[in-house]
## 1
Amino acid sequence: MSWKLNKANEVEEIRKIYGLTLESLIKEGKPIMVCDADLAGSSGASFIYTKYPNNSVNFGICEANMIAAAAAMSMTGLKPYVHSFAPFVSRRVADQLYVSAGFAKNDIHIYATDPGYWSQYNGATHTTFEDLAIMRSIPGVNIVAPSDAVQFKWVLEYYEEHGGIFYNRCTRKPIPKLYEDGSTFEFGKALWTHKGTDVALIAIGASVNDAIQAREELSKLGISASVIDLFFVKPIDEELIKQVIREHKSVVTIENHNRFGGIGEHIGSIIANEGVQVKLRQVCVNDRYGEVGDFKYLKETFKLTKEDIVIAAINSLNK
């Protein structure tokens, strides 16, 4: 693992990286199959269906069929990459994932897009705050939540080389570029991006950038905060988490997900098993369904903003 934080204050569109990376793998002669359910125009891979018809299949609005067929493709030596909104490739297809992919030990990469508040105006059917809970319960599934396009690209390439089942939970939209191009990562390992002594902010996905901003605000208040980019939700980096909880007075977990079945509960179980006297606060969705609205409104409504992280951190340190 060799990574550096990007200091150029750039943003990068995730779906653009998806299409370009898949095309690069096809040009290298890799046996990949790009699969979608009438959303290739949203994934960033629509041009692949025109340029590389032998490496792509549009299944229409039949996500369960797509998952089962993709799992079967892997039995022939292909590496399938499937895409859809997060709820369509988690709760809607749970049985196909469990039986055809997990139980049968087939390879499949799932690009689960726009989870939680990222779905914005798409409504209840397209919103998910429970997908991590579903996917964590299926044996053998690797769950990643990249915090930027560099990590996202690394996952795509890692899967092609090593196979397995990857649930890649990430938005399609432009997000801050946290890591420099060429950074490499390690399977199952988190990243301790900023070191502090008082409170540890443990986040996934684009919330890592929120945690970094919250750290700067806390510093102005005289509070020293660490930031941990968890990256792998499953397998979780227990070794690093154990070190973090022993070296800080409190821990705040940040996730665009329901409190049930998310990273807060998992880290809480590690704290309990270790018997460490450290406070835990969760910045997450508190047992609610999604709403329709713009990005700013939804983050404020679900209390997932930078300011909410700061408040949670302060409260975690109060006796």
## 2
Amino acid sequence: MITEGKVEVIINGKIAELVFFHPNSNSLPEQMLKSIKHEILNLEKNEEVLVVILKSIGEKAFCAGASFDELASIDNFENGTEFFSGFANIINAIRKSSKIYIARIHSKAVGGGVGLAATCDYAIAHTSASVKLSELAVGIGPFVVGPAVQRKIGLSAYSAMSLDVEWYSADWALQKGLYHRVYNSLDELDKGIDSLATKLSESNPAALKELKKVFWAGTEHWDDLLAKRAEISGSLVLSEFTKDFIKKFKKN
């Protein structure tokens, strides 16, 4: 089990920061996925908090997605399904939460990182925050994060990202609706997030909760949907294609 990295919550009145870090470009091993979900559920119990800022720290990627070290260690369907369920559980936890989630995307987002950005209710990014769905190149496909990404950018753009595994710029993400604002400096980025979070924290809590329901209307079946998607990924991660790709990747 990969134990490096950390997840913490910082609460300042009605605004909370959910912060994660992993030295491997903020990739997410299973234990960190569980910790993030745990903190989301804990925050839901805090009636005072209205807004949660999801952010990572460090100078590298916002989130590099699944941990390749952990992917390499998966040797059976059950473990594979459990690992990918970690991403599904985070998506569903944010979806069901009454809090408004703002994503702070300070740099590149890959795979599951794109899924996190898409799942948050509002995403504010730096101009360097390009995005990539890299799963097909690995031999898996973006099955678990797919519903969240498609919901934000539409089927056509999601298909393009899934099949043409290349980097898409922050401006492209802004045009497609994955991002809602893009800033040229981290200072501007943080000021924009602070301004929005403050405004939201001063809003009517009942109105925010009702808006959250409206945002996620039509996703009531996602518990079952994402569980099935995790099973697909859990099966494909065992393929020779994927195992060979990960071995080559780790050697480079």
## 3
Amino acid sequence: MSAPRTAPTLLGSAARILDLSLGQMLWSRRSIFLGLLLGGPVLLAIALRVVDTLYRSGFQINGARAGGAAIFGMMIWLLYIRFIVPVLGVFYGTSLIADEVDDKTITYLFTRPIPRSAVLLGKYLAYVVCTTLLVLPSVMLVFFLVVSTGGGSVAAAFPSLLRDFAMLAIGLAAYGAVFALVGTRIKRPLIVGLVFAFGWEPAVLLFPGYLKRLTVAYYMQALVTHEMPQDSAVSLLMQVFREVPSVATSLLALAVITGVTLWLAGRAVEHKEYVLEQ
């Protein structure tokens, strides 16, 4: 007599969905488009390197030659933290379940003998791996192209690159979880996600009070080790944002945000009835 079959575990089922989804996600049209988007900072870094090579004065900020590490820090702040990481979170996170509904494939996933929440968790883990594989090569290329300009030392700045990798991965995980919840709760999640990332978050960071604690960006700031250039319009803006919590508080808050929003998204998937439009 054969032993009774046990129900698959949540993590085991999520691992199967991760394996199924990762290849599809890496080679999707969305990944190709966002890969081109991540090529923008690399092209900018190449242009800065050309300027540094052709002109003895190099790249200047307020009449003074900027060091490569300072330029790289500015690019991390303005291009990756403020723009690319939220964009990746919005475009991928909101689509984890919404794309399956739009493609009318959600029923095939839900007929498998696995927990529904495992589908979301597996696709979320595939998102984290996919976006990390897209972002980190872009950051590394920018680092090696930019940091050595202006007489900067790559070896001295390399430990900060490793911290940047960890910080960006944490940001991708947090934004992805938040927008995964949006994608499971709202019918037009992409619009809501864009408004949250580029409307709500920048707006509440400019004002005193507790609303900024309801944003991912508020806690991400404490993890950025780069300083902005002084005596510039960008520096003035960043001074407004410098009311930041400690690193330990930020890590704990981001972990809570990721865990709670992902759990709520899983609950929503478990209990929601998906009616496919003909």
